[in-house]
Amino acid sequence: MDPLIAIDNISKVYAMRGGDVHALRQVSLTIEEAEFMSIVGKSGSGKSTLLYLLGLLTSPTSGEYRIRGRQAHGLSDFERSQVRGKEIGFIFQSFHLVPQIKVLENVLLSARYAPETSSTDTRKRALELVDRVGLSHRIDHRPTELSNGEMQRVAIARALLTDPSLILADEPTGNLDEENGDEVYNLLKSLNEEGKTIIIVTHDAQLAARTDRCIRLKDGEVVNGST
Ligand SMILES: Nc1ncnc2c1ncn2[C@@H]1O[C@H](COP(=O)(O)OP(=O)(O)OP(=O)(O)O)[C@@H](O)[C@H]1O
Ligand SMILES: [Mg+2]
Q1: Which tens digits make up the pLDDT trace of 53-73?
Q2: How far is the centre of ligand 2, averaged over its atoms, from the C-alpha of 171 (Å)?
Q3: 5-224 is classed in which CATH architecture?
Q4: Which residues surround ligand 2, an ion (CB under 5 A)?
């Protein structure tokens, strides 16, 4: 069977006035369904670039990307956003919630990208997810009326709405204290146990050690970890 994602000799170069920035250099990586992995490395080593590439948010300068055996090269923007909407959920360090709207509406935002689900079902599912992340009592709050840990749990519920098979998290515990960080880790771990593939970019060595596989980037190259 095809792996969930296979990238082969991927490079990403940003052409800047001061010269080219090689954010990724010839990275090859295979990610199997239901993996629980982390990506570590110094600031500027290319972690976010790699994560966004895996999530089809950016395209490589060269190299091949396949998701379930399907070449991403040649997909239209619409097809890429369809694959993203179906397969991939994102979680960010700074949560990326919309401050003016309430918890439930924030969770419902990702439904826009999977319009085929009927709205009553989607709403029911959003309520279940808010409950799952332990925030039923905060449903009428706006993000500014939540703690950081609560905001990240809303973001996780939002990422789960479309039932993606792959969750990509860019420093999901970076703005959280230890207790809230643990809670986010436990949520991601339980999602993995249900069969979801989880990839976490992190600076936290302890968090990385609690994933099944860790790869390290240095100057845009994978320097250890099995690829
Ligand atoms: N849109 C962009 N345009 C130009 N250069 C970029 C762009 N995005 C990233 N870079 C450069 O590419 C390199 C890798 O950046 P990236 O954000 O992937 O690093 P990172 O490992 O996630 O760092 P951090 O830990 O600080 O988040 C850096 O040198 C950065 O300056
Ligand atoms: Mg980053």
Answers
A1: 999 999 999 999 999 999 998
A2: 8
A3: 3-Layer(aba) Sandwich (3.40)
A4: 48
